[in-house]
Amino acid sequence: ASRMEARLPPRVALPHVPGWQQIAYAPTVPWQPRASGAALRLIGRYRSAAGQDVDVFIAIYASQREGHEASAFGEGSLTPDTPWRWLEPGRSTKQANADYLLAYGNVRRLTETSYRTGGMTTGSAVSLKLAAMRDHLLLRRQPTILAILSAEEHGGTNAAQTIGNFRSAIGDEGEWMDHIAGLR
Q1: pLDDT at position 55 over 90
Q2: pTM listed for this prediction
Q3: For the chain: N or C, fewer Cβ within 10 A?
C-alpha cells in the first residue's frame, strides 16, 4: 500500500480566476514554500482590479509516504534557512491553517495552508495524516494537493482581507484545487 501512487497529469497550470489576472511573481523578499516530495509544483501571483496581490503555491503529491508528506516538519510556507521567521498564528479555519511570517523585521506575510485529498479539504495536518492512513488501509490511490494562499502586508493592506477576496473569486477551494490537479 505504501508504494501505491495516484496518476497525475504530466504538468499543471494555474487557472484563470474571475476578477484577478496573473502577473509576474515578484515578492518583496524571496518566498518559496518547500514541498520536497511533491511530484508537481507551481507558484504564481494574481492581482485584482483593486491592486490586491495574492501569491499561490500548489504542490501535488502522488502519495503520502516517508519523504513525500505534504505536512511533514520543515515543509510548507515556512522554509528553514531563509529570511522568513514565524511571527504569530493567523485566523485559521477548518479548511486552512493561517500563520504570519516576518522577514528582516519589517516584511510581513500571511500564509493560509490547505490540504486536499479524496474529497476532503482541511487545514489540519492531523486530519491529512489520518486520511492518508485510511487510504493506505483501503488501498486507495489518492493524490494530495497542498495549496498555500499568501499575501504580503504593506502600505496599509490587509492580507487576510486580500486572501478572503481571492477565496471568494475561486469559489469552492476543494473543487478549484481538483481542477488544477486535473481531477475535474
Answers
A1: yes
A2: 0.92
A3: C
